[in-house]
Each structure stands twice: as C-alpha cells, then as structure tokens.
Amino acid sequence: MHPWIAQRTTTFDASGIRKVFDLAAKLTDPINLSIGQPDFDVPESIQEAAIDAIRGGKNAYSPTQGIGPLREALSKEIADRFGHADRDVFVSSGTSGGLMLSMLSMIDPGDEVIYLDPYFVMYPALLKMCGGVPVPIDSYPTFELDPDKIAAAVTDKTKMILLNSPANPTGVTATAEQLEAVAKLAADKGIALVSDEIYSRFHYDSDFVSPTSFNPDTIVIDGFSKSHAMTGWRVGYVHGPREIIATMLKIQQYSFVCSPQPAQWGALRAMEVSLDGHIEDYRRKRDLICDLLQDDFEFTRPGGAFYLFPKAPGDAGGEAFVHRAIERGLLIIPGNIFSDKDTHFRISFAATDDTLRRGAALLCELAKEA
C-alpha cells in the first residue's frame, strides 16, 4: 500500500456494484436488471425549472442549508405530517451526503450501529470511515424487521439504529407495528434512530409509515433521486432534532458546501409533480416480475422500492450464479455485495416490460440448468 494512503481506507473495499458494471462494459446490448434508478426520465416541468434557474443566473452557491423556498416547502410538509416542535430540515448533497453527514455528526470511534443484513452497500463503509462498529442483524430468510433481534443486539456501546424501509436490496417493507417497537426501543434506551426513507414513495400494498410517528427524535434522510429520477442531480434532505441538524450543517459547510443550486430549484418544482402514474406502473412491474419468477425461485415479495432479492438456485451461491447470468448477457447484482452471505442476488425491476420478460426467461432457463 502506498505510504500516503490513510489506514481508514483499508477497512472497506470498493463497491462491488462497480465491478459488475465493469463486466457489463464488455457486453453488447445486455439485458440490464441491475440499475438502481427509475427507468423514466426526469419529468419535463422539473427539467424546465432547473433550466430557468440556470438561465436566470441562479448558478452560485446556495446557502449551506439550501435555498429558502425549498426549505420552506419541505418544512411545511414535514410539520403537517409530524407536528414536532423540535424538528428542522436542510438540503443535503443527495441522500448519500445526508448519510455521511449523519455518521460524521453522531458516530465516534468504537460506537456500535445496528442495521439489518442485507443492507444498502454504503452503510458499513460509511460507519468504518468514522471508526464506528457495524452490527448487522441477520434478517434471512424473510428480511423482515424483527424488533426482538434489534433489542437483543443492543449493548452499552450502541449509539445508533439505522433503518431502511422500503429496503434496498430486498424491497421489503416494515410494518407499522415493527417500526413502532423499534422506535420506542430507541427512545427508551437513548439511542439515535436514523431512518433512510429514499424509497418512501415506492410503497405498493399499504400506506408508508415512518418511525418518526412514534419517536420524535428520529433523524430522517430522504430525497428526490429515486422518486423523480433525479439521481444525478444530488438533492436530498434531512430532518430531525435542531441540534443534530445544526451539527450536520456545520460539517456540510466544510465538505459538500451545498447541493447544486439549479437542481434545488428543480426539486422545488418536483414537490408539485404527481407520481401516481409512475408508482402504479412500478406496482404492476413488481407483480409482473414476481409472476414470471415464482415457479423457479424463492423470494420474499417486495412491498416497496423496485428490487427483488431471490435466492440463487443450486449450491454454487449467488456470486457464481450472477457470473453465469452475465456470461449470457444478463446484468444482475450478487447478493454478497449487500450482505455477509452469498446466497441471493438482486434484480431491479425498474426496466421496460420487454426487458423484464427477457430477463426473467433467461433467469428461469439458468435455474433449470443449476
């Protein structure tokens, strides 16, 4: 290792998703079920709002906390939902930026953070950057949030519980009862509760419930990337207790500075855009891919997001199955990128119906060969 490289960078590897994309670059016209972003473009009115901002000279730094109109609109929406007196909001540089700021603001070396396995790939890496200790909770085979398992993992070093519902990579949604139990556990134990709600609008079988409804000190991370196909625009937002938000803003001032200003004006317009048609379309896509694969694969039917996390057939494991799929021109993601286990793989059903049908046909063919 080069002598200038910091030791903290050796505690985690580069994202395995990037390795899959490197393999994908060698393929011609692959069947792509790997991308974790919507397959529709940014709605035109949002594009126009950002263009108007650029042409109107709104190209400088914004305030670190975000442009006033967007923060005001977010504050009103959040106040209407929760009504908490001690709750502030700021605009982050994407939800990934919000996650990093939350870790840097609250995690000291040696602090333990509890989250479910499988998990979003960033969680353990961000924790290790801060010197935190990841405490993954095995949620196989159903991937449900089990409050008793969370409670059993709490120690005197537990600083944070990190929730993600609907979840990446499983698409599984926690019930209101499960969320309430964990929210009250965190409150009773004085543990920080961070809720990653980036897929909150992709909820198919019931209304979305935030643990914030049961614990007023919950820190929520959300954004516009997935809901409005604005993944490259880097506009997220974080809300929670004022002192926590102020600390996160202090770090943002010396790191990200601010979210791109023209994109924030686009996000303001996005708050007026109805997503009902897109959400209904993704519910239909969820049903389609589940129907196509149910005879050949074991999986938990996702209640949200746009992912399916099936068990790989045979005994070779998830990564070996994914390599076989890639060799046949199908891009999916091995489950061991998101987990300590190598038994599953992730499908994104954010794709055209034709792509889903072609991909499912090849997956079923590979399953019969396993």
Automatic annotation (TrEMBL):
It comes from Roseiconus lacunae. It comes from the Bacteria. Residues 29-359 form the Aminotransferase class I/classII large domain. PROSITE patterns: AA_TRANSFER_CLASS_1. This is Aminotransferase. Its cofactor is pyridoxal 5'-phosphate. Belongs to the class-I pyridoxal-phosphate-dependent aminotransferase family. Its EC number is 2.6.1.-. The lineage of its organism: Bacteria, Pseudomonadati, Planctomycetota, Planctomycetia, Pirellulales. Keywords: Aminotransferase, Pyridoxal phosphate, Transferase. InterPro entries: Aminotransferase_I/II_large, AspAT/PAT-like, NHTrfase_class1_PyrdxlP-BS, PyrdxlP-dep_Trfase, PyrdxlP-dep_Trfase_major. The keyword Transferase applies. It is an enzyme of class 2 (transferase). One of its GO terms (molecular function) is transaminase activity.
